[in-house]
Amino acid sequence: MDLYNKYSTIFTCGFQQSIESKKGKSMSISAVGKQSTNNVPLAFNKKGVIINNGASSLIELKSLFEIKDIISCEAFKSELYKDTIEKIKKYDYIVLSGSSKHDAWDKRFEGQKKFIRETNKPIFGVCLGHQIIASAFNQENRVVHRFSDLKREWKEELLRKKSIAINFSFPYLADNFPSLKGRYLRFYHGYYVSSNLSNLRVLQTCKDEKTGEIYALFIQHKSRKVFSTQGHPEYIDREYNDISLGKDLVNAVFLEWFGSSNTLYK
């Protein structure tokens, strides 16, 4: 059985749930605004760990990735670095959380960036994690910027864009999972990543019509298992109530990483 046929029921089932929710057939009020993971399993049974960069959505991230273990970003300090690397060896992949408290250029993340550059572990970055990945592989240039550097009226308009439609395909998945396209991912932050990046493939960009600035919504390393998004797959957009999008997106990335017929990383 090929990978698409093996796992398509997971994606199709999840997408159908979101459609039925929109029609009012199975919508749970308590699920709105929170990640629902009960009916959409992860495609692969892999053990992950979350690097907590100060996330307010830690519970939702743990639920989305079905992860129990957390490591603080402070664990990458020079005096703790070797012990932290040793602890991480037992995990199959790593999730870098977001945060509203820090920016990617904070010195506390230097050890984490060093680890990102040196490890061969698969890494999934969210929000600030996305920004840390971008800056880790682009040391020569400042690729993470604040929206507050823009004119106030432009910043306010940008921040009102609370969700953006996914509009890309993974190279390996091609068009096998079109249900990801056109679905709205939660998108709300005060920083953005430039689309001009070294070592990273920009999968989708967003252009602000007033400023002309083009920033990266999704990125993927050109030769390593590193993927990140500026959006928040751990949350459900209240307007669209797509309760399975987060799991579907993670499953798509996992299929890239762990699928036995994987071609992108061979």
Fill in the keyword field for this structure.
alpha/beta, globular, seven-stranded mixed sheet, 266 residues, two-stranded antiparallel sheet, 29% helix, Rossmann fold, disordered N terminus, Glutamine amidotransferase domain-containing protein
Instruction: Using the 3D structure, state the CATH architecture.
Output: 3-Layer(aba) Sandwich
Shape: globular
**Strand line-up of the largest beta sheet:** 2-1-3-4-11-10-9
Q: Sketch the topology as an H/E string, one letter per element.
A: HEHEHEHEHEHEEEEEEH
Rg from C-alpha positions?
18 Å
Can you summarize the main beta sheet?
7 strands, mixed
CATH class: Alpha Beta
Give the structure's gist in a few sentences.
The protein is α/β, with parallel strands linked by helices. It is 29% helix and 18% strand. It is built from seven helices and eleven strands.
Can you walk through the features of this model?
Residues 83-241 form the Glutamine amidotransferase domain. This is Glutamine amidotransferase domain-containing protein. The protein has helices at 3-22, 58-65, 81-88, 110-118, 128-136, 152-159, 245-258, and strands at 48-52, 69-72, 93-96, 123-126, 144-146, 163-165, 184-186, 191-193, 200-207, 214-221, 226-229. The chain has 266 residues and is an alpha/beta fold. The chain has a single domain, classed as 3-Layer(aba) Sandwich (Rossmann fold). α1 (3-22) runs antiparallel to α7 and α4 (110-118) packs across α5 (128-136). The model is unreliable at 1-33 and 261-266 (pLDDT under 50).
